[in-house]
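Possible race condition, two jobs.
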Amino acid sequence: MPLQLPVLDDTDFEKLLEMALDHIDSKLQADWRAASEGDPGRVLIEAFAFLTDQMIYRMNRLPEKVYVAFLRLLGVNLYPPSAAAVKLTFTALPHESPEGATQFLEIPRGTRISSDQAKDDGEAPIFVTVESKTMLVGTAVPDTPDAPLPSVTIEARHCTWVEYELAGYGAGKPGLAVQLAHAPLVAPFHPNFEPKVWVEVDPAQDDFDPDDRTINHHRCRLWTAVSDFSQSRASDTVYTLDRLAGIVQFAPAAQREITLGGKQKMLAAEPQPLADVPGNGRCIYVSYAYGGGTAGNVLAESLNLVLDHIQLITQTADSQESNTPQTASYFLTVTNPERANGGREAETLRNGLLRGPQAIYAQDQAVTTRDYERIVKSASDGLARVNAQTKRMKWTYAEPGTVQVLLIPALSSGLAAAAVTPDGQTPGQPLRHVSLKELTRLIQTFDLTAVEAALNRSQALGTSHELKWVGYKEVSVTAAVVIDEQADATSVVKTAVTNRLAQFINPYNNPDTADMTEEDTGWPFGRSLTLESVEKAIAQTPGVTKVANVTLHVAAPNRHIRALTPDWRQPRTWYAGSQNNLYRSTNDGNGWELMWTFSGETVWAIEPNPDNDGLLALVTRVDEPDSPVKARVYISTDCGETVTKVTDFNYGIEDIGWLLRANLTILLLATDQGLYEFNLSHQRQKPPRLDVPSLVPINPNNIKAAIYSLVVLKGQRGQSRVAAALKSRGGVFISDGADLLPDVAPELTLAEITDLMPLAPDWGKLAESPSTALNAEMSPDNLPSTPPLPLSARRADSHFRRIVELDGEDVRHLAAQQEDPHSYLWAGLMAEGKVAKGCYCWQLGQPSGKLMSPESWRGGSCRALTFDGGWVYAATEWNGVVKLNLRQEGARWVASTALDPIVFDPFMRSLDDQRPDYAPNFVESPTGEAEPVAQQIFRPYEPLWTIAASGKVLMTGGNHGILRRTSVSDGAGKTGAARFTDTYSESSKVSGMDKITIPYDWLFVSGIHTVDEAEPGDE
């Protein structure tokens, strides 16, 4: 059990009175008895008992006093208040400048801004600008009626700046302390507003420091603030500052430890100052900022009064300049478009006593994750929560020794300060709604310079750190509630429910507490949001009697899934491309997080690198109506956390692949103008970059033939081979090895590269490359006048050979299967009317391949293939997912997905007569019996575009989202025949979930909630 502070004497007033009366009765044997409470004798006894009780109370305070003294010895100080921050917009009023002159308004640093509406205590908060800015004065009559007036935006802080306060005089003796006129000082927020102490210099000193300053006709020198005097020398001009108390402390004196004869250590004979002290009678001037607190969290549009003069700068035509102070209201207006935030009160003694023991474990060196959290919190008061993790435990690509520090910005409620309770504590304020937009703005404007500096000073040799802002998943709720007849107006109760939801689904709320105040520790990292907890939060709202039809809404990849793939190096991680969004799942599709949105583009292909942790290639198509197809290539080295655009393409890119050759990472692009390879540079802490492209001649007769699909296969001895399927029934080709370029490869001129890649990564590198026919003097603006020989006219030998069995076939998807020790190439075939062959399989090293059970194929075109053990799964045009057991002799294709005939879409059924080849009424069961089961799980006859399997998870995507195989069942169907169908569920729901998950580095934030009134009995 924890050690408790001892109670020196637990005797209270009642016990003292009882002891006194008992002593009188038993020991004194007096005739007097305290018969009544009003007796004068009893009154005297009660008075003495009361005084004694007070003495005992004071004595019992001694352990707490000693406790506080020990904490001070450990260097524990209470945190001062924080100054709220706000962005002020200054707008110049119309003003007619003198003829031939230009006028500017300068708003000096430290200009005070306030409100013309005082608070209840009669004082309005005062803010000061943290920097100086100048803007042009507006004209009397704008050139156009709607022309905006000149304006500037300046950051301001809620505090009062005191310049050169005479705090006291030196005594020439150690241990001097001076008390400032105002306290407490605010926590650090800007270098220009850090406290500065100036001490008058002895006139006899002839040394001159460039930082010396004349203050009130005294030459003064700037002294340096330190946390303590342990490392100070006798000549150092240093001091310590207690911000909360407003006390400047100069060095005390002590007998220092000295060494005699190089061996024996002893104390010096006389005490000596631990550092320099101000001379006798020398002036001590201090500049500092005081104030801060929650009173500065003012609402938007509330700061509108400039308290100080501004400077009017006039420049004449002959370059003469004048500068005069002016009343601000004549020349400009000021306002704060957004509310101020970040103001906090000073730390209470009670919290300091609870936090103090942690200082025992505090070190200046960052060793454990707890050390990182403490150092980051100490370096910035603008962070609400900090959580440190060993990054290698979460991500395979992380460098060993890297600590990932998750940050959450501080967000004050902005409400009026609550009344102080008798014990000196301020009760927690209710959490307010915080939007994703507001959090994004706070993050974008946050300065982490001080945090970086503190960690760089503290982290151990051989370790590194990464500061990362927590991601936020936006959740909206729709619900219906039954309102109590005795409650307030319906609109009031509905608003209360909406507010409670905004407080509950809040990154600063702890769902395990009921009060939802700012004192909560915040939403636990990794904690899911359940439908049950949301219903409970709504039911606890005053005026609500019952809750009905609660639905959770969240963003998910539920439309047009063109790309879906697992990360081969990061466990349980998947990527999905949905329209212009890149989603990622770190829990095998149980939940998805929106990582990036590519405006004006469509995510077309995603390919993780199988040999490098965290490396990911992404291709998008640029959405430009009535324009030729264009593409962009992005690279991520951290599993999609960040993406970097490496090149634009003037042509479409259908597929991408990775090739490892001689320890070089090669990116392959299957384009409408042939196959290209790039050497990719992807060093840690540096942006990825593509080198000069090389055209790979697959078909010597048409080296720029368009390509549908490519795949990289591993041979029996580990060598890599590349296969590509050409468009327009151009056939399927496979390379002899990883070296795709022949000895005489077709070279690209700079003009051809420019046509291919309008924004080349590095024109200088292109000009210097020896692998291309380039002139060093060439550039995009200086191309040769004589066009080079077009590539189509050049002949180059190819390292590829044609797979004869696929000549004339429409192949749009290739897949590789590795079944040790054999490797297989699979090709998905497109259907031609009623004829559908399914897919073709060829084992490397064999003379030919074969069609896989074409007689049992149902589904039209084969869109995609994947493999799970001995099974092959195919995404079809209209039959959902079908599968084939490769380890069973004479295996047939059977359904993997199934839809209950009761919910079969009647409208789609009516198409059977019109398109019987695309919508059959039934398929054959494995036993040959007719079994009328529609073979699509959510939208009948909708094509599936992609499918992939990793571990025990299989997912497939189409126009209406992602399906996830959750179990495999070989049970009997309604007719008694084995149906071999698997159980699938929607992995990309945007509503109707019982639970919404988040990764360890994400939290929830409220979206827009909708609450309707329900009648009793509707729930």
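Job #2 (started ~2 s after job #1):
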Amino acid sequence: MKSMSRWLVSFMILLGLASGNLQAQTTVQIGAGTTTTTSFPIRSCYGYSYTQMLYSSAEIVAGGYSGSGTISKIRFYYATSFSPTTTSDNWTVYLGNTALTALTAGAANYTPTSAMTQCFSGIVTFPAVGNWMEITLSTPFNYSGGNLIVAIDENAASYTCSAGWRYTTTSPTTTVRQLYNDSYNPDPAALPGSYLGSSTSSALRPNIQLDIISASPCAGQPTPGNTVASTANACSGTSVGLSLQNVTSGSDVSYVWEHSDDDLNWTPFGTNSSTASFTMGATPKYFHCIVSCLYDPNPGTSNSVLVGVNSFLNCYCASNATNSADTKIDSVELGTLYVGTAATACETYTNNTAVPAPVIYFNTPQSMRVRNGSCSGSHYGAYVAVFIDINQSGTYEDPAERVASYNTTTALNSVPLFNFTIPTGGPSGLTGMRVIIKESSAITACGTYSYGETEDYLVDLQPEPVCIDPPTAGSAQSNITQFCNTTTVNLNLSLTGTSGGTGQTYQWQYSFDDVDYYDIVGATTAAWTENGVAISYYYRCNVTCGASTVPSSSVFVEAVPPPAAGTISGPASAYASQAASYSSGTSTGTLQWIARLQPSTTWLIVPGGTNDPQNIYFGSLGTWEVRLVASVAGCTNDSSNIVTTVVTLQNDNVCSAVPLNIGVNGPYSNVGATVEVGESQPLATGCNTNDGWCVAGISHSVWFTFTVPMGGSGRYGIGFQPGNWDSQIAIYSASACGDLLTGAAVLVAANDDSSGSPYNSYARAHCLTPGQTYYIQVDGYGTTTNSGFGLRIDDFGPADASFGGIGATVCENAGLVTLTPAVAGGTFSGTGVSGNSFDPALAAAGFHTITYTLGGLDICYSSNQTVEVVTPTYTYYADVDGDTYGNAGSSILSCEAAAPVGYSADATDCDDTNPSINPAATEICNSIDDDCDGLTDEGFDVDNDGYTSCGGDCNDNDNTVYPGAT
């Protein structure tokens, strides 16, 4: 009993010592660099980021710790500050044991959260600048002693672009990969997978500190749980990462990884580690791990996991452009396949594997069209290549699998028709096809590049069927359709649109006239190379199946004479912007005139210069060399002799001015123009005036004349078309050109800025005299020049100075008459005129002339009207009650023989307020003088006693009875 107690005491002492060892903590630092980055461990310049960083066991050992343990804290060095920190303080931290020795870019390559432990989620605290930012893990991590993955998911919205962290370069090994975006928040639980934001990989790994607590020896039977695979299915030749669901804590833990084809018979692999990697072959595999504690005889075995093998169709390497602008694939056409996108759609990669696959028969000629485009509309030279995985290996590495290529494109939609044949002998069925267009350099099937696009498709390779009787012969094609008859060429003849199949045979033929054909000896394949062709021939192919032979359509290959430029002639001198004629007379072929201004050695194409003879307009002064180049497709160009022409400005001087016509004239140039002594120039009256310029001064002035047509309007505007530019223009009247050098010329109009940028000038000149010649001065503002401006003269038509509102006669007492001009803004004048009114009373009786003179630039234009003011001779009386009899007490004088409304020539109405009372009315007994005869109720006093019955007589038959009788 004493012995047992002594053993227990000894065990407890050892346990106590072991417990003391268990609590021993080591701080490991990996990386000592002092350079800063805003990108890792979080991307502070973006709203959201998710970063995975790899630290190796060797680095942890070098930092002072080996073996397994518990990581309780992590730290990153906070080098530069930012505010507010709330834009970047919401972190979730994952740690994981891993067999990876390097990281691979791409969202599909991220270690899943199921293979890691979430150790922290919440708000982190940023220290003062120049200190380690510490995160205490709410769930300490059981570190197995191998390589370590540290993942940071930053979830706070918005960003502040200034936070910096110290890092150390681990080049060339990629140890950091990251997803980031302002709007899309990466979800670590949804990876591996796709991501709508941006991604990056780097060797700039942030410095880190790890607090690791050493572990005591493990005890009891381990429970490793499930075996965790990095992917459910993998491509042959790629690695699968393996880990355990449950980490066995403590030291002295051993691991034996095994794989199996049937989940029964197992084969060990890998190293003694809690994680492993396995390179997949062509068959699926089961995996598990046997975990043992050194002092326990009962190991634990993890539950097995099956990792499948992807179809080779899902295992092709990635390929895409990194810049979505410019060059792209507009459309692809192969057999029944036709896929296209909008010309303005910018694309870097398009997965078209869901498009129905076209059938491609072995040993059957194929024609394929790839249309190159650019979403910007601008062309850039690019390489094109088409790959087909003929051996169905999941790669495009076999050189024979590059079935078509072209370089480089010369314009949009400039890729020629591709022709190829898949040889027999390979596997049949669906396989991959990749089309790539790439700017600047040669194409490889995998990887990224700057500008262009990759498109992936599926095609169905099938054995060649038996040919059909009768066959479809299709059309003959040649890589060369025209060549120079002074050389020989090698022709590549092929068929397009032909049927195929076993048993089908071919015989190529040639002809001089496309009627009588002759067999080409040995030319019995679908494609044939005919060498040493020296003259013109037609070619076709007889296609035979069974008892039927069908000729293809023919292709004509023409031997043409070489071009001839001949000997050209032209003027020794010419004026700028005026036609100079050149000719050869013996040229043949397609022509192009070229010219260069000495001392330049670069020849310039003359726009539109494709004729013989040819007019050339020189825009710059100096000594020009002119040459004619003749070309014929398939032949070497021929160049003529060189003609030298000295070009000067005709209208540099006032007395050599160039005449202008109404409409558009030109083009002209003031490049190289000079200023003559005493040359006229407008004053600085303002930028938008019609009588001067912004600033006085001339530097490169040129001169023109304009003669006003007889019968012309005399009203014109002069400006620029084409060639708007920051210019100045002036119009002068002079009896002779020399007046423009002596100050005797008169400025008619001048303008500097008629509009905004480019401050184009436009002068209006009115009141010009028909038949007279005027001088026009053109200059650029300051010292600016223009080698191709046009001058436009606008005819505004005759001025309209007419007016109305008044007749030929007006009564002296008619009151004010309003005068109405056809064009407002002018001035009325004449006796009785004030402003826009005519007062006949003020003018008095008689004949008067009224004149209207236009204003502004049209002040020289006017019109007259003669008006007679008539004295009134008729008197009319007011007829208020409208009974045609007027009131003698209210009258007017008038010039009209007819009374105006409301008046009458009769003045006998005795009551003009009652239409029933007038000289024509019938007298009634009402005590009123109804007929205006001065009597009242006459004829109604029967007894003649002076009273009527309506006037108070109560008995009009007795003259003794009346009012007042006694």
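Residues 2-22 form the longest helix (21 residues).
Logs attached separately.
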